[in-house]
UniProtKB/TrEMBL annotation:
This is TPM domain-containing protein. Coiled coil: none annotated. It comes from the Bacteria. PANTHER family: BLL7265 PROTEIN, UPF0603 PROTEIN YGCG. Pfam families: TPM_phosphatase. InterPro entries: TPM_dom (IPR007621). Residues 2-121 form the TPM domain.
Length: 144
């Protein structure tokens, strides 16, 4: 099973969505993709990946991870404590619904891009970009 089901062009679209979303916020967005989810619960796996990628080390604890196990058709969207306490109660579920609607038709790229855009809007609202912001986490997609 291939670890990366995305073409180079699709990967660039996702990375560009991350860059656009992060332009107006101090928040950080990452995407992690693997074929199978080694944990029965994709949220638990996303928490493991979040820690492994060092996403908890952002200054304002405002990292968001989009996790996708494409062969298992499992995914999760999680945020660090800084953003989790500020977004509306239904934010994570409604963001997953956006992804789910695109994933159901096999359009993972569009689903990720729309979800990233939505996360960026929330991050912008609660963590606006400041002139001294640095990009604390890489924008590239990580794979297992």
């Amino acid at each position: 099973m291939q670890a990366n089901p995305f073409s180079a062009e699709q990967q660039q679209r996702i990375i560009e969505a991350i860059r656009q979303a992060e332009k107006a916020t101090s928040g950080e967005i990452r995407v992690h993709i693997e074929p199978q989810c080694p944990n029965p619960d994709p949220v638990q796996r996303a928490i493991e990946v979040f820690a492994r990628l060092g996403m908890h080390q952002t200054k304002e604890q405002n990292g968001v991870l989009f996790y996708l196990a494409h062969a298992d058709r499992k995914f999760a969207v999680i945020g660090d404590t800084g953003i989790d306490v500020k977004v509306p109660a239904d934010f994570w579920e409604s963001t997953k619904n956006i992804l789910r609607s695109h994933f159901a038709t096999g359009d993972y790229t569009e689903g990720l891009c729309r979800g990233i855009e939505r996360a960026g809007q929330q991050l912008k609202q609660f963590f606006p970009y400041a002139s001294d912001d640095t990009n604390e986490l890489a924008d590239d997609i990580s794979f297992d």
